[in-house]
Amino acid sequence: MSGRRSRISEEEIKELISKLRFLLPETRRQGGSRALAAKLLQETCNYIESLHRDVDDLSDRLTELMATMDISSAQAEIVRSLLRS
């Protein structure tokens, strides 16, 4: 890489903001003003943090569930095979 920063046009920024707005459940209905861009980025960060917490919680629950399963049970083997894929 040359070390130069590639420039993103204002139109590309608007398109990316629009894509982010569509991806976030609570912002799909909001309008597209530039003033909302900073708020949208903050909401995106909050949403990603929330998803990380959800993944951690689900991982903990799965670990607890796996600990209660008989190692040789068919259910445990199914869960292990799903986790490997």
UniProtKB/TrEMBL annotation:
Presence of keyword Manganese: no
Gene3D superfamilies according to UniProt: Helix-loop-helix DNA-binding domain (4.10.280.10)
SUPFAM superfamilies listed in its UniProt record: HLH, helix-loop-helix DNA-binding domain (SSF47459)
Keywords linked to the UniProt accession: Growth regulation, Transcription, Transcription regulation
UniProt KW Lipoprotein keyword: no
Gene Ontology molecular function: protein dimerization activity
Domain BHLH: from-to ranges: 1-51
Pfam families per UniProt: bHLH_ILI (PF23174)
PANTHER family on file: TRANSCRIPTION FACTOR PRE, TRANSCRIPTION FACTOR PRE5
Protein name (database record): (wild Malaysian banana) hypothetical protein
